[in-house]
Amino acid sequence: MRKYTRRFNDFLRNEDGLILAEGLVMMPLIIWALVAMFIYWDVFRTINVTQKAAYSIADLLSRQRDTVPTTFANGLQNVANFLTPGGHPVKLRITSFECISPMLPAQPGVTQPCDGTRGSYRLLFSFSPGAQVQPLTEANIQAWKTTRVPVLNNGESVFVVETSVEFKTQMKTVLAGFLVGVDDGTYGEFVVTRPRHRRLCLQGTNTCT
User: Fold this and answer.
1) DSSP output for 183-198
2) Which letter does DSSP use for residue 100 in this model?
């Protein structure tokens, strides 16, 4: 009887193969973590490069002295594609406008700024290379006052560069009952820039005359 008892106690104390068993239990979780980190990294990388591309295009446009040629504006799509590698398509829209505000009745010669209640935006142009995005109208941009665009003085002009990336998850998987939690979606940037000269105009439009 003691012989069997001793063997049973030896079996309980034997730890051979314990690491292998723990490895088999944890392996699905480790694989899920590696896949999740890859997907999360791809999301943040896409957002980061899209943001840099939007600011680079805005800086390029702000340096234009004369009316922007249509060929130049269309070529900005190639710039956006070059700056955002990774296979996610990028859509681009450029909108230029200026503040038009009446004078204060009690103070002749003093104009009001364009804020939430006073003044309005005058659309100079709204353009998307390749017509990938619907151009905006003058009524569309009025909602930007004090929400997305800073307060502008009368005659002051800015332009907005909008980028839109349709992100598609390259690896969808569910492991060990845990969902990675990243779905396909659209990420975009909204960059407001003041031109270094008076205003940004586009060839073929008559609003800057």
Assistant:
1) --EEEEEEEEE--SSS
2) E
133: DSSP letter: S
Rounded CA separation 204/75 (Å): 16
pLDDT of 113: 84
Beta strands 185-193 and 174-175 are unpaired
What percent of the chain clears pLDDT 90, i.e. is strictly above it? 33
Give the whole-angstrom CA distance, residue 59 versus residue 66. 15
CA angle at 86 for the pair 81 and 88, rounded to the nearest 5°: 70
- Distance between CA 100 and CA 153 in Å, rounded? 8
CA distance 133 to 91: 7
Instruction: Please state, in angstroms and as integers, the Cα–Cα distance from residue 114 to each residue in 108, 109, 129, 159, 193, following that order.
Output: 17, 16, 29, 15, 16
Non-local CB neighbours of 201 within 8 Å, separated by 6+ positions: 67, 68, 96, 124, 125, 207, 208
Q: Helix 18-62 vs helix 70-83: angle between axes, to the nearest 10 degrees?
A: 160
- Residue range 75-113, pLDDT digits in tens: 999 999 898 877 678 899 999 999 988 766 656 666 778
